[in-house]
Amino acid sequence: MATTNWNDFIDQTNRRMTAVRGGIPDVAAGFAQLAKAAIAPGALDSKTKELIALAIGIAARCDGCLAFHVKAAIKYGATREEVLETIGVAVYMGGGPSMIYGAEALDAYDTLVAG
């Protein structure tokens, strides 16, 4: 992807997802409930769960996942060092492609935390 403006990417993706949610409202509502339940604190806190989601997004090479899970991880207090360790686990599990997407995730973190 190699985007340089993660905030614009999030805005653009949100607009596109609004159209999808309008077209399949029941599916969208179910997905929203699933996401809420999955990230709710339990044995793992929400920050840890978002970092797990970020690692999966990196390994799956999902641009939107990088943007939204980095943003959520920041919301839950993730540090740059925690994001870097998450990238390390993703590289371990996903090899070279995860290294490239890990760099994208770090850029998203640096951009979004700066505002």
Automatic annotation (TrEMBL):
GO terms for molecular function: peroxiredoxin activity. It holds the Pfam family CMD. Gene3D superfamilies: AhpD-like. Residues 25-107 form the Carboxymuconolactone decarboxylase-like domain. PANTHER family: ALKYL HYDROPEROXIDE REDUCTASE AHPD, BLR3452 PROTEIN. This is Carboxymuconolactone decarboxylase family protein. The lineage of its organism: Bacteria, Pseudomonadati, Pseudomonadota, Alphaproteobacteria, Hyphomicrobiales.
